[in-house]
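Pyrroloquinoline quinone biosynthesis protein PqqE: structure tokens wanted.
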Amino acid sequence: MDINTSSAFYAGFGAIQAGQNRVDQAAQQIASTTSQSTDFQSERLRAVDRSQQMDLATSTVQLALGKQDVELGVKVAKASDELLGRFIDTYA
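Answer:
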């Protein structure tokens, strides 16, 4: 059985990067929706149509998913790193 820890390590980093990109995009969407907070804008936000509310909800879900992607990517990269450390310690 061939175990390639570097590919798992890079897969973890890829997941971290993808999650970070998802978080960045969702945060931009949320910020652009709620960027102006004057009294006029507050009233306008209360009267936001349903599609804009759904966009905000979707962005919030994407933000949470991005966070989860990053956390899982860190776990994969960490597990790969620990596995490599065990191989070196065992056979060194």
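The two ends are 20 Å apart (CA to CA). The chain has one domain: 5-91.

Cheers.
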